[in-house]
Automatic annotation (TrEMBL):
InterPro entries, alphabetized: CcoP_N, CcoP_N_sf, Cyt_c-like_dom, Cyt_c-like_dom_sf, Cyt_C_IC, Cytochrome_c_Oxidase_Subunit
Region of interest (Disordered), residue spans: 266-299
GO MF, one example: iron ion binding
Domain Cytochrome c: from-to ranges: 192-271
TM ranges: 37-58, 126-148
Pfam families, A to Z: Cytochrome_CBB3, FixP_N
PROSITE patterns in UniProt: CYTC (PS51007)
Residue stretches in coiled coil: none
Keywords tagged on the record: Electron transport, Heme, Iron, Membrane, Metal-binding, Signal, Transmembrane, Transmembrane helix, Transport
Species whose genome carries this gene: Mucilaginibacter auburnensis
Protein name listed in UniProt: Cytochrome c oxidase cbb3-type subunit 3
Signal peptide: 1-22
Domain of life per record: Bacteria
Length: 299
């Protein structure tokens, strides 16, 4: 019964590992990661098979021993009498391969050092099984990684982990970008952000505000005057929610938070560029374009 239970546990563990690997095997999974999963799985599977095989062998030996030692013929021999006496040994002593204290006099080794004598106790069975397990593990590891080349060696695994870390970094940055709102947006003069903002501005905002932000239907975005605030937070909010009563559409559904932030920063970069034929000032004047001490840059 125990053997069947352990076999079932083995297959369930293997099935769980394969299921987890299948769930992780998304398009983002690299070939290096897959090789590592296969290598790890192979080693774990072989070790589990080894453990189950050892338990099966031990169970078989135990069953055979019971048949032999339980026979009447054996019980009548001197060995049988000694075995019957040993059956009273505790489970802990059996596990550690220790003899009871009453038998220590028979285990004392003849040599003596400074009055210290040594007992001839065998190495515990659990320790020997562990030792044999390390031998099996070393052999399987050697075959998997150095002979068959299933798993990755340390230098290759390092490259794989760095690639995975870069992917996770990109995913984190993308997620962080989606969390930007009118309260958390920051003023940026990063060339990449401004270039991205210019691209969106040219495609979506230029028809109303002009290619250079000089103003057409919408107001001039390069002077010190603002209808709804000139800070990067106020511009983000205006782009996001729009001003429907004045013809400014809502861009929340069409643009991502990161795109809105890039456009807002690009608009801030247009401050003071003085394009030709600017539209007359509208709104309230805000010194510095709405962000005190903010640096502006033009593309």
């Amino acid at each position: 019964m125990k053997t069947k239970f352990l076999l079932m546990l083995l297959f369930l563990s293997t099935g769980t590992a394969l299921t987890a690997a299948a769930q992780d095997a998304e398009p983002e999974l690299t070939s290096g990661e897959l090789m590592n999963y296969v290598g790890y799985g192979t080693i774990v599977f072989v070790l589990l098979v080894f453990v189950v095989a050892m338990l099966v062998v031990l169970r078989a030996v135990n069953a055979i021993s019971k048949v032999i030692l339980g026979s009447e013929a054996f019980k009548e021999t001197a060995e049988g009498a000694a075995f019957a006496k040993k059956e009273k040994v505790s489970t802990v002593n059996r596990l550690l391969s220790l003899r009871p204290l009453s038998e220590e006099k028979d285990l004392i080794i003849e040599h003596e050092y400074d009055g210290i004598q040594e007992l001839d106790n065998p190495t515990p069975a659990w320790f020997m099984y562990l030792f044999y397990g390390t031998i099996v593990f070393a052999f399987v590891y050697l075959m998997v990684y150095h002979v068959l080349g299933v798993g990755q060696l340390q230098d290759e695994e390092y490259k794989t982990e760095m690639a995975v870390a870069n992917k996770q970094k990109e995913a984190f940055l993308a997620k962080s970008g989606s969390n930007i709102d009118e309260k958390s947006v920051k003023l940026s003069t990063d060339p990449g952000d401004l270039a991205a903002g210019k691209s969106v501005f040219t495609a979506s905002c230029a028809p109303c505000h002009g290619v250079q932000g000089q103003g057409v239907v919408g107001p001039n975005l390069t002077d010190d005057y603002w209808l709804h605030g000139g800070s990067v937070n106020a511009i983000f909010k205006t782009i996001k929610y729009g001003v429907t009563d004045k013809g400014m559409p809502t861009w929340e559904k069409q643009l991502s938070p990161k795109q809105i932030a890039d456009v807002a920063n690009y608009i801030k970069s247009l401050h003071g560029t003085n394009p030709p034929n600017p539209k007359e000032p509208q709104g309230q004047k805000e010194e510095g374009g709405g962000d005190a001490g903010a640096k502006t840059a033009s593309l």
